[in-house]
Design goal:
483 residues; Protein Transport Mog1p, Chain A
Amino acid sequence: MESKCFRLMGLGVVLILFLSSGSCAVNPVSGGPELMLLSESDEIQLGKQTDVQVRNQYGVYEDQKLNTYLNDMCQRLARVSHRPNLPYKFEMVDASAVNAFAVPGGYVYFTRGILANLNSEAELAGVMGHELGHITARHSAQQYSRAHLAQFGVLVGGLFLGDLVSGVAQLGVGMLFLSFSRDNERQADELGVEYASKAGYDGKELAGFFETLERMNPGSDRSGLPGWFSTHPSPENRVVAVRKEAGEWQKKLGNRDLKINRDVYLRHIDGLVYGDDPRQGYAEDGVFYHPDMKFQFPVPADWKLNNTHSQVQMMTETKDGGIIFSIATAQSPKDAAGKFTQANGATVLASDSITVGGFPAQRLVCDVKGQSGAIRVVSYFIQKDKSIFYFHGLSAPSVFDKHLNTFESTMRGFKDLSDPKKINVKPNRIRLRTTKAAGTVESSLRSMGIPNDDLDDTALLNGMGLKENLRANTLIKVVEKGR
């Protein structure tokens, strides 16, 4: 048992180590001192490690031309920021959620969902500058530092600072989505306006995008990636404050001919996938289909399904049972079962070689020790072509028998997908149309054949209201339906 006196002595020693190791840093934006566990080199290393996790968990949207355009914008804004020497990198996350986030060290991510809802380069510059602001003011690094302190009890136990980055990285990509404070958000808004203004853009356009976000109130998507307001709490009077800040910077810089570049931006996102992409798998009428890998399996009725880049997750309404489906790295189903058992220190209750949907498979039942007690797992490892797929059905041992039939009905239902109608599906995409005559947004959309039920959403997609007036030859985004 540890005495109170010993704990306090340990805390004092650790704080001395922090201070003597240079972790009492100067904030690059405010110029004031701050307790920071990450050096700049640590931030860069952490960014590289987290980037691998982001790419694996959420996937990257592959469009080289668009990515080059967005990366160029990021580099131009970074050059006028408070930390121009960081190795900034921009990535498009392949998710429909409307969000953007940043990682210490210079990594900036926009979902294709937020890209679809931006309407000009000036809006893009404002939001990108906002995320750069989280990096330059070290908000993200502060979050990692606070989480590390909380998890490890102020590092009592003599952890060297050189071990810090690997320890924080183990907190996972969920750390990206801790909500910033309103003060952090307010400062990031100010920095977004500053960087956009210094790059020659109209910083007031950021306020217009925030108004659109308020109308949308975007939430999470089926990948589980959260929406904007989950990670970016709105400060009071945000829109008014942004417009005021932009006006002040315009006076300070003497800006004339401020850039908005609406058409330039819209032409770059013409053809962008919009909403969930069925090519990555989709559920329909109680069945999950994957058209590229050509398999299907039933989804339990009334279970919640999340289809992430790396796995499919299904959970009961009461959250007392769930199924995970993904791909294993193994030579055979039996090899995959053995690796799972060894990696988790599992106690094997049953193991059998079986056939599922005409494919060789291994069935495994085992107990795994969890943080709050034992977890019972039934697993199917299935070999299809050159891939090993696996299902894990998980629950507490006390309710395992209640869920077992549902678990195995889903797993035994795995089979080849051959229906051309289910295979040849296409995603919805953003397409550009041009108004033929002056009129209201509503009249223009109706003339383009937009159904009544889609009028409000299409106007919002363009950051407009139905009663607003448009000039002839105005570019408008519409959603081209896929499957």
